[in-house]
Amino acid sequence: MLPSLKETGLRGAAALDVAAMASALERYRATTAIFSPQTLQGLVEYIEAGGRRPSHLRFGAVGGAPVSARLLARARKLRLPIHEGYGLSECASVTTLNTPAASREGSVGRPLPHVRLRIADDGEVLVAGNLFAGYLGEAQTEREWWHTGDLGYLDVDGFLYLTGRRRNLFITAYGRNVAPEWVERELVLDPLIAQAAVFGEARPWNVAVLVSSPDSGAVNIAAAVARRNAELPDYARVRRWIVADEPFAVTNGELSGTGRVRRHAVYRRYRERIESLYQQEHAS
Description:
16 strands, 284 residues
């Protein structure tokens, strides 16, 4: 018998009772579990606050949205056996996965044995093997390769690295393509930056809305941005930024239930301040 959503701690599509989730993992002696970034973060925070670590958990996969490298490091510190993966509903879920025997930091793992994977000329990830028959009410799909809409690359050992969503790709005023998720992932590697949303469509340089870590002052944030910019090519660097009024969250509509930044919502809220950054630069 499967436990109810309430028993597992899920409250609709955007709320979580972490204590209930941890209790269910222990009660059912779960050895394997699949997490979204948000549910993993909840479990990590619960254990860090003194909650009991699931004693039977031997393997946990996390996916569904970009996963912070810092969150994975916190999970490892708590001895949680968490491994990042990647999948799509159209491919019967999991397509690539890191494992204890084959894992590479920053990647979403190697393709599973039944999956074929290649990268299109424009950087889009294409997947074949065990594809779905089609969407309900539509004609049966006859595609051999499924266009995922995700951008990424394979290393020489076959590990997949995701750099962003094709639909989120923006083009700067100088004609350079920038995947904002790539830049955001680099920014949040700094411990002083908790969350980031990057913008720059048709602009000569990029701006960001940043959520700072607790006790991070403006000078420290400037140093953090400078450190991360040093790891990026010039066209991807963040030239100006604003500090968000509050963290991106499901409750304020700026984060999806799986942990993806809702960039349209963030832009809508901070539009005037973002535009003022460009106006200030132009005036000077």
